[in-house]
Design goal:
The structure is a homotetramer. Chain A has four helices and no strands. Chain A is mainly alpha-helical. The model of chain A has no long low-confidence stretch (mean pLDDT 94).
Chain lengths: 131, 131, 131, 131
């Protein structure tokens, strides 16, 4: 009887660990999805408002395309995280790279710190999640 | 001089009112965008996880298509609110109608209250914003 | 026997008419989806290439936002037509209105005739399909 | 004079080659974008019509999520090819991998040959374009 109780206790502990792990993984994925959507909103809003209103270097093709590409891949990465498949690791790799480039481009303009911060945060979290 | 001061005071008050109004309008639009994105996430996640895992009536074509349509129009309404144009009033009208239908469909299944709530909240706010 | 044959012939004819109607409706919807995707591609490509490279009036906020809004609603209208629901009639209404405004805006710039044509064609077909 | 004519001829030839190359690259990218949009439409339509109507293994979570993920990344890859940036090479890598998996999953169901073909064609072209 003592052996069986030990086995049961071990099984319960293993199950508890597994559930905790799943919960942690889910929480990390939820937090990352929030960062992707925050970065999508920052890029889309800043491009179509701040950048268009400032003009000049803010609508230089290379910078502006980067912001639109960044908004698009962030939105898609969030969609992959919602679908419950493990494939979000693939989109996260691309998202990290595009967000990093977008952060650099925004930084050079000097008046887009909110967007720089959103891109850097998203890039770092996505890089950790990527394959 | 007294007259000029009165005019200045009136101009300042008018300006303050205008700025307050703009700020209020912006805050309402931001709150609505959050509701649209919350509803998008709820529908997309529930359809591709809860509904697919339950099967049966949860993957009945009419219900499932409604959830996917609702996710799509909520995401697009949020995009219109980010672009800074007044055209989000158009997408909000469609969004309100689709969200209402989706809430009804989810309600009949009995175990999707979170999605019902997200759809109802989004539908009501969108209806107020729509033309 | 003669009566039964008449009834059968009438049923067959009714069925043939119904199938022909369904096929026609499907073909019209497919053609419209193609127009929406063509307009999406035209607006997205012209905005991020032609307009950004020209600068000046081509990146004036009202014009540029309109092109991005138009690309987004065209893409979403196409998505609704793919889902097999009758709700594409709702998005078609918005799509018609946004495409019409975008065609007008492109026309004033004088060097965007391809985009004008894509928007006008999509606007007209969407208007016919809309509720 | 003869030397200068030789130099001019060489410069003209180099320019002609460069223009031909740019035109070829553009044509390849346009063809790939068409394949991505064709695959998007095939997956989105088949998932929300054929699969939902058949039920059973067609709405098994792993298969259905794959189709929705595939539709999403194909649509996003097309968007990146429209933006005129070189970053479409990144999304093409993910697109190739997801399309390949989706083709395999559709093949096992036995009655989705159109979708298999669209996914295989898109996967192959995207793989060639990817970094």
């Amino acid at each position: 009887v003592a052996v069986k109780a030990d086995v049961d206790a071990a099984a319960l502990a293993a199950n508890a660990r597994r559930m905790l792990l799943e919960k942690t993984v889910g929480a990390i994925r939820d937090a990352l999805r929030e960062q992707c959507l925050a970065c999508y909103q920052s890029c889309q809003r800043m491009a179509l408002n701040h950048c268009l209103e400032r003009g000049g270097r803010h609508v230089e093709p290379q910078h502006f395309r980067l912001m639109i590409d960044c908004a698009e891949i962030c939105r898609t990465s969030a969609a992959f995280m919602l679908s419950g498949s493990p494939r979000h690791r693939l989109t996260c790799g691309v998202c990290a790279e595009v967000c990093r480039a977008c952060a650099d481009s925004c930084e050079q303009l000097g008046d887009m710190q909110d967007c720089v911060d959103a891109c850097r945060a998203c890039a770092q979290s996505c890089a950790e999640m990527a394959d």
